[in-house]
Amino acid sequence: MSQAVMTEKAVMTLEASGLTRRFGDRVAIEDVSFHVAPGETYGLLGPNGAGKTTTIRVVCGLLAPDAGEVTVAGLPVAATATEAKARIGYVPQEVSLYPDLTARENLRFFGRLYRLRGQELRDRVEEVLELIGLADRGDDRVESYSGGMKRRLNIGASLLHRPELLVLDEPTVGVDPQSRHAIMESIANLGTAGMAVLYTTHYMEEAERLCDRVGVIDHGHLVAEGTRRELVARVGEKDRITLSATGSLALFAEACRRIEGIEQVDTADSSVHLIATDGRRRLAQVLAAATVTDTSVRSVEVEEPDLEAVFLHLTGTALRE
Amino acid sequence: MRAAVALAGAELRRVARDRTFLFFMVLLPVLIILLIGITISSNEQIRVGVVDTGRGALSSSLARELADDPALTVESLDSRADASAALRRSEVTAAVVIPSDFDAALRAGKPVTVPVLVPGSAESSQAALTAVQAVVGRHSAAVQAAAFATDRRLGSFDQNLGAATRLQQSNQAVPLRTEVVDSASNFLPLGFSYSAPTMLVLFVFINALAGGAAMIQTRQYGILSRSLAAPTRPRDLVGGEALAYLSLTVGQAVLSVGIGAVLFGVDWGNPWAAAALIFVWALVGTGAGMLSGTLFRTPEQAGAIGPAIGIAFGMLGGCMWPLEVVPPSVRMLGHATPHAWAVDAWVEVLSRGGGLTQIAGYLGILALYAAVLLTLASLRLRRSLVTP
After folding, report:
1. What's the mean pLDDT in B161-187?
2. N or C: which end of chain A has fewer CB atoms below 10 A?
3. Which of A101, A114, A115 is opposite residue B14, by nearest beta carbon?
4. Do B218 and B343 reside in the same domain of the chain?
5. Where does the ABC transmembrane type-2 domain lie (chain B) (predicted)?
């Protein structure tokens, strides 16, 4: 019966339903539900203390939930812990490596924990070193690495066994911009390679750049989820268009007000500020209005509402560091 | 099991690269075995001064026999005054003054006395007196035999003395061995036979306690909690740590045995008894090391407090000096530590030729210590792994 249901229904790589976890009287997460499909990158966005790490620890089987269930590739984590865990790659928030061992030795150790042996282990270690760009430093002790290199190796250690689900707990904290860029590139590639990725961050730009869908978590509750556009639509945020121009700005502003979708027009010195729904689509009409009103446009800037604004709207607070 | 082996392998690899730990594991035990071995050495040879004022054939032969005695180291002195000076300076334990009429008196069959000078406190000279007495008695026996044969007109005195001496040499007397005993008549091993096994006991324990730092570091690095996200169970990680510590303690013990045998010529007795004792003591060390890794909060604490506790236990347990020389109350207190039982077992094996049967009781007591320590350590480590 359940087999039939499974084949009919697309099996999500990760299904979390109704997760609740308390520490004494404090509720860390409550009724958190979400899923991650194969090849999808799901971002769990929230400030420090929102419940991201608790959610991840429950998902990875490191913490038993008080209520709710997690399945990975159809396997319940609580009941089949080792089998489910074998399908997860976990990247903890802190670099969790032996600093006095080399990168190769660290990878061999973690590979063995994930049941890799012999030639397969040796091959995977070399592949991962290549993937994270540390092949030429593989025999150096980790303590000699820069922060970014350690972070890359921290991720690499979770990729050895080719997990179906990669769980990253704020992997770019304390990383220099160059390494951060490299890490995000690598994660984006993993998503396109078919791996499901659960990514927590409190950096909006990371969530916007990497994630197909985002869950906003605050005070232990998942307050909203969806694609960036869905979230923006849900909170009703508009695009901002700013034009730097010379000429008859009053006439130009009047012409803009008549364009469908333009909801607000303000002029100031040599610029015009517009608030519009789907601003990029209105741009051609706006520029046509400038031509008609003999206005010379020097620059145009379209600001789409970001997740920061969504978060502000949903929680009533700015994203806390 | 594979996860346990992987964890143990990684831990051992780290330890092998720690130069400080290697110093404590290899070099320091050698130095301490050497130091304590020399300090409580039995020094079987007794230094004796000999003044030959007679300078005749018989007095010379007596001086030669004293010099040839394996129990004595003889220093030839010119006069009684030199002998007194050597005694004052503690250069010799006793001085034998062979009188000038020694030859003439013996040849004439007259009694002669050989003075032996000893310092004021004669206790330390007792062994020297006994050894000298034995040599002088042996020499007198040959002279008496020669005198008897000469009296029976069986040849000249010198011929008879030569024959008697040869006969004496070809018929060795029944040897005696001096052994120091305490009130309970326990044989007290001395020299390297004491220092090597006691240092094995001491350093296996100390290095295990100090090695607790490695487990604390592994926890601090987040390795253990990350490992739980892999398909491993807490018991795999507890087993891995135990395996690492057991390998270290067995390695330390085997190293001590090797050093004792090769460098200091220690005979480790019955191999089965020694192997069993090493293994059980390694288990005690494993439990202690793991407990140290769960009790101390920082590697620095384990590295500083661990060895201090190990040394204190070693002192109480007879690793620094034999418990036979301490008051009974201290000896009893010492047996609250596992060290005392281990040292007792080694004394049984090394000094009395004890085998597995003779040390079975000690092994049982040590196994109990190991079980308690390992259980406590495993429970604490497991709790630290599963507690959020």
Report:
1. 64
2. N
3. A101
4. yes
5. 161-384
Tokens standing for residue B104: 């003439």
Q: What's the mean pLDDT when you consider all of chain B? A: 85
List the single best residue of A109, A113, A158 to mutate versus B (max B Cβ within 10 A).
Answer: A113
Percent helix / strand / coil, chain A, rounded to 5: 40, 30, 35
- Give, in degrees to the nearest 5, the angle at Cα B373 between B372 and B375: 65
Residue B74 sits in a domain of what CATH number? 3.40.1710.10
| Tens of pLDDT, residues B274-295 | 999 999 999 999 999 999 999 9
Which residue does chain A place closest to B13, by CA atoms?
Answer: A101
Could you tell me which chain B residue has the CA closest to the CA of A64? B388
Q: Is the dihedral of CA A244, A246, A249, A252 positive or negative?
A: negative
Q: What is the CATH number of domain A2-87+163-233?
A: 3.40.50.300
pLDDT range class, residue B37, cuts 50, 70, 90:
low
Q: Residue ranges per domain, chain A?
A: 2-87+163-233, 238-304
Instruction: Report the distance separating Cα A46 and Cα B227, nearest Å.
Output: 26
* End-to-end CA, chain B: 24
Q: What's the number of domains chain B is made of?
A: 2
pLDDT-derived band at B181 (thresholds 50, 70, 90) equals very low
Cβ contacts of B228 on chain A, cutoff 8 Å: 61-62
Task: Give A105's contacts in chain B (Cβ within 8 Å).
Answer: 10, 13
**With contacts defined as CB-CB under 8 Å, which chain B residues touch A90?**
226, 229-230
CB contact under 8 A, A115 and B222: no
Q: How much is the ipTM here?
A: 0.77
Question: What range does the domain containing B78 cover?
Answer: 46-170
Out of A64-73, A158-167, A184-193, B250-259, least confident range: A184-193
Q: State the pLDDT at residue B190.
A: 58
pLDDT tens readout for residues A48-62? 888 999 999 999 998
The shortest CB-CB distance from B229 to any of A88, A98, A101 is to: A88
CA distance B218 to chain A (A): 7
Strand partners of residue A246? A296
Residue percentage of chain B with pLDDT more than 90? 34
Q: Which CATH code, of 3.40.50.300, 3.40.720.10, 3.40.630.30, 3.30.70.100, is assigned to A238-304?
A: 3.30.70.100
Do both B90 and B74 map to the same domain?
A: yes
Please judge whether B221 and A85 are an interchain contact, meaning their C-beta atoms are less than 8 angstroms apart. Answer: no
Contact A97 B228 (CB under 8 A): no
- Mutate: best of B226, B227, B387, partner A, most A CBs <10 A: B226
Most confidently modeled range among A98-112, A261-275, B182-196? A98-112
User: Is the pLDDT at B43 greater than 60, yes or no?
Assistant: no
B53 shares a domain with B29 = no
Do residues B327 and B198 both lie within one domain? Answer: yes
Location of structure tokens 């009296």: B151
Single residue among B170, B199, B234 that ends a domain in this structure:
B170
CA angle B340, B345, B349 (to 5 degrees): 145
Residue of B13, B17, B227 lying closest to A113 (CB–CB): B227
The candidate with the shortest Cα–Cα distance to B213, out of B299, B295, B288, is B299
